[in-house]
Specification:
It is built from 66 helices and 6 strands. It is mainly alpha-helical. The protein has a two-stranded antiparallel ribbon. Strand 1 and strand 2 (about 25) form a beta hairpin. Helix 22 runs antiparallel to helix 23 (about 615-625). The radius of gyration is 52 Å and the shape is elongated.
Length: about 1500
Amino acid sequence: MTSRPPLAVSQRQPQRTISGSGLSQSPTHQRTLSQQYLPQSPVRKPDALTEQSPDLGDVAQGRYNILPRRGGSRLKLELANDGIEHPGFSESPQNLDALSASKAFTPSRVMSMNDTSDAGDMTPHTSRCHTTDDDSAPLPMPPRRARFVVPAKRPEPSSSTTTPQKKDTRPRPFVLETPSISPRYPSMGKAEPIGTAKNKDTSPRARADVGPGFADFYPWNGGHAEDQFSDSIIKHGHFDKAPAQSTQESSSAKGSLYPCVKHKNGLHTLSSIFTSIMNTRRHGGQITSASTFKPPPRVTLTDTKREIWLKDLANPAISLRRLSRTIPHGIRGKILLDQCLNKNVPTDRAVWLAKCVGANEIRAFKRKGVNGTFVMGGEAKWVRDWTVFVEQFVETVVNAFSEHDWKSKVTYAIRLATHLYAEHLLDRDHYMEWLVSGLESSNQAKLPMWLLIVQIYWTDLLKLRKHGRRLINAVLSHHSSIYFHPDRDILLPLFTRLQSLVESLLLTSPGNFINPGTWFKFRDSLVVDPASPNSESRLKLLKSIDLRNDYLANSNAKSQPALRRIIVQLLDSIHQTPLDDTIPKKLWKTSENKFSIVRTTLEWCTSLYRPGIAKVYVAATILRSPEAAGIDPTRAVLDFLDADALQENARKQLVYHLVAELSRSGHFSIPQYMQWLIARGGIFDPTETNPDGPCVTRLLVEIPVHMLDDSMKNLRETLLRRANYSTDYESTDIAMAISHIKKTLSIPLDPANPLVHKKAMSLKKISKLIRLSSRSLKTTISAWLSEGFIGGYAQNLQSGKGGVELPKATFEAIRTILETTEEYAMLESVLKSMVSSSDPELLASCVDTANLHLPIFAATGAVKSLFQVFYERLKIIMEEQGLGARPLLASLADLARRLSGSEDIAAQLQIDLIRIDRSSAADASSPLSDNMATQLQDAETELSEQIEKLASYTSADRPTMERLFHAIIKKLQNYWGKADERQRLCYILLTRLRVFDIQHFGTLMRGWVQHIRKLKNRPPIQQLLPPLISSGCLSLSMLFATAPRSQGQAAQPQSSAVGSASIYMQEILQMLMMPFSPSPAMASEDCYRFTIIQDHARREHAKEIMPLIRGALAEYSASCNQQVPIQQPLDDEETKTQLLELLRGLVLVDPNAASQTLSLKSPDPKLATLIEAWTTKLLVPDDGGGQKSFEQVLELANEFTLPFCQVKLSLNLATDETSGPEESERLQSQFEMLSKAIDNAIDANNIMWTGMLPSLSSDITQHMRNRAESRFLDLIPSLKNPPEDAVLEKDIHMAENLLTVIDSIFRGSGSKVSPLSGALVEKLADLWDIIASKSSEYAPLKMAVLSHWLPLIFSYLTLYTSPSTGAIDVSKLAGGGEVRARVLVILAGLVQELDNYPSPDLGQKAFDIALALVDGLPDEARLQCVRAVRDATTDPRVRYLFSYAPNPADVFMLSHRDKPPTGLHERRALALGLFTIPEKLTPFAFRRWEILNEPTPNVGENDTSLSLTLFDARKMK
């Protein structure tokens, strides 16, 4: 019988149609497909058969290339078809296949839109008879023969439609034509003979002869074999080719089938029969042959032929199957890419060529006959090299922006690389690495292009932690560089683009921002404009990311001691650098518990272990900061006073001072304090208002009275009267103090004042009385001086009334009084009032005042504003007075170098100062005036004249300088020990001489100081050197160079030194500590300037002063061995007090340097005892000194004594310079004692001392850390040994203490970085087992793990995630990568397991810790993790963590099934699904390089790259 056409061939039409006749007839059922599978034609319109579609037209008219006619042919058609129409006839549908639009567009299957149809007139006609049911229509009858049988050739249609031809009016015979829409036999890969379409013979026989033929279409002419009825045809049907005898049916099957069908199981039997028929049909045509696929071969061609082939490749009209025959050699790598670019080869054809070349290259490795490992390595290497070629190709094209067609080439290159990437023809990891590296190293000119390229692969990059983190880092780096760029407005378009990218990344991929090192570096540039849309959500997102990074970077041992220690460390930073705006912000971010921060700040402010008054202003600034919103300072101070009964008078004075400062700004409410005091019962006992009374009640006496209104003053008076405290006496005392100050300042008094006729009190005595007075009196006096007295002067000067300027001596007296009262806010107001003065020396004194009290004014935030106003005033004074402005210029230059951010101004001021000094040496030496010069004797006048002569030269020769220097020094030595003002004149001459050659002058001065050091008989150093230091002739670095600089030299005083030479270091130390008063050699401004230098020495030369102190103590201890005793400076009690304060300040500035200097063992036991006593006084001021054991030191440790305990502990662990068996035994004994003391302190819940552990030696801290870690991990529970409830609570508390110890050691500088331990992995696994346990028996243990143990172990892991440890290469640590990989695998499991519990915070923390740990993981260890969690890679978080992007082809598996059963029952059970055939899965190697759409020129049965047997494909017959 007629076979069914292939699926790719159009189906046969359901009727035969004679063009133009309107006749249609249904063919026999043996040769047609059922029409029920054909879709309803979309063109058919049964309801409006008379309406014609404009697209259908008269096709026959178009065939002869004539213009269409609107009528005239309908009558002819009706006459020709008269009497032939029948109600059963139906028209042929226009579209027989709904899927025809989606079939392949090949020349053999697609008809051009411009070609004429061979189907004739297919326009539907109106039928004269209609039926409602196709089944009731009468059987069709053969149509009559054609009326015209004389064949005639029709003219060939013209290919041109532009010029209409003349109408042929000759009669034409009727000729049957085969419609073009009739199904045709497939060509089987053979092209139609050339000229087939142009053959003038259009008869069916001719068409069948020259073409492939039409499926089962023969025009009826009565002579076809099918039209000849016979008994065989009637019984068996018509066959084009008779079947074999074996397949012929001998008889009808009705007899055997009908009884079965009638049976009750007939339907099942019939189904089985048809199922077996279909299975037989399927197995009969199934493809079983092996795949014969081979990649297209490459041949050697000449250059000309290769160019022709490449041009053909660029031509889409030439099929790839044709080109696959001759792929030329030599086109590979970058040449292939360049040729595709130059020839503009379509992207899909370029990818096809790359696949062909790659498949041949890869198969070349397999043909070498080597093992599989080499083949895989060679293939990976080839793909890596190919990826490098693609990267170089893209980069070369992008950089060639000078070419005229650069845009089109860049577009092509990026598109081609993207297609290769999308089809997995590149090494993706290497390609992503190149993308990220290019973005990181790109400059601003190329940045837009790199952003464009990277955004194509944006999604894939962000899915992998390895590349996503670096991508975010690069984007933030470029964003930050432009944000802080001075030409930001020029780069605004690029910045806007980066800003939008950052915002989108924050929303889509916040996990990539979890990188503490990057985040804290660039987060300041991620500001959010409050006016921008969605600003609240962005701020919330930024805060969330900031908290997550902060958790990984900062200490998470948030026990109260650890938190308090962090706060104290931030506050202590003011001893090293002045307070800036960042410290309060950092302070308030340490904890969410603001009340704890306030309490610790108040304790630090009132601690006796912190010297100076600047801490009061620091505490006031912190309490006033905007971050303290929600905190009531009044309530906080009162709660602090209620909880801590201050006993020391010094601490009480600090509280009174702080309350006065807060009251001045309105942050402390005095009415609220009185109300609180009344609620407590008021004051009745007179002792409660005494100076040594309780601080909480004495505060009522100390509050600033001048700020109270009358009602508050009356209430205060009432409360104090009950305690027998007279406010009238207080008012009289204040009035008397102001009167004495007026008398001292020469201010006219009221004639009725009793002090009018009395002698004025000295300023020194007034200062002493004020120092002993109450804070109320101090604040009142300060307010009167600032607002009443100085305010009047300033108002007169600013108003232009011509008032007298304030004398410099009066200003110095006012400054002294205000410094005595310690009211520096009032002193600040006085300094600002003096800006309008025109006296340079007065202005210089104001600047020196700000310089001396720099920490205080920095805490109040006034130092920069003060510097700015005086700097602006300097410009005016320079224009008005010229060289006379030198004092102000020198003071500003000294202040500017201490201010952060003013380095450029300081350098410029220093240059200006040197320029003025060198411009005129005679005039520049401002201390030397004309009247002073007249006082010089003949010798001094001669020296002055010689110096005047040197002023005309730019520099002086060294012999002349040496002669003059030694002459001046000789004169100076003659005045030693005499109260002669001529000493100061010698200092002035040295100052003038120094200008000519500063370097050589310094050498001469250093040599002279070394000389006077060795003198046995000389005046005290504090009489000789301070004038030189104050005038700038002797710097501090020169001074310290004359003292022993190393620790060994400081420990060994010179035994041969006698007399004054034996106390040189003591004198130097005394000079740097003690205050100075004006003398003939030093004026008041010189003394004040020297005080500034003393303060500089404490803060900037701490490392030089510590050896000096040790050397001074060594001199003092050796004084008893001298035969002729000499008075020691350290015997003075005032000097001892100052030395103790100096030591305390130096320890706070640099505790490590102090520990190293003082802990050096000395062979002199007296020196060791002396150092032991002084360090004990630092720790216990009231103790007489002596040795303190380790346990005693640990007990004394708290947040404020920690630096001093550190020095004491280092001293106890000090080693001798000589090493021997006895020394090692002593060290081991000390070490064991320290370990025991630490264990006892931990057991006693004392962990205050942990902050000093990092300062110890690395061996000690490492041992302590290992011991604490071992104890910490041993406490973690497990399912093997579950602890009891009581023991569990105790273990949790102990673990918190141990974690604090580990955190203190780990974050310090003394502990070496070590990898994670294997015991940690086991404990993490135990906690995972507990969480995953479903047993109710372990429910309490599971809750304890979730609430305590997991947060503790996570806090322990954050020690390895801080930026300092994150920068360490883990691969260089022994076993670091393997253990870290195991930890990461367990953390990945915990992340998934914690999803089952309602606490999302723990899962988030585990994931963030894993992100920080995986960043430093080597690639080998990361691949091990991927293999370990391969079954869990469906979780995108795990894939992202380990940067695992599986190749889609890697998941393909090949199923191997056993043969199906042969038995009937087994097959029926299999069909019913009662059992399945077992199958075996094996990995399937998917070769992407061999997936070619046109593989070879020869067509085979199974020639595809993927074998058709994998799909159970079958041949179509």
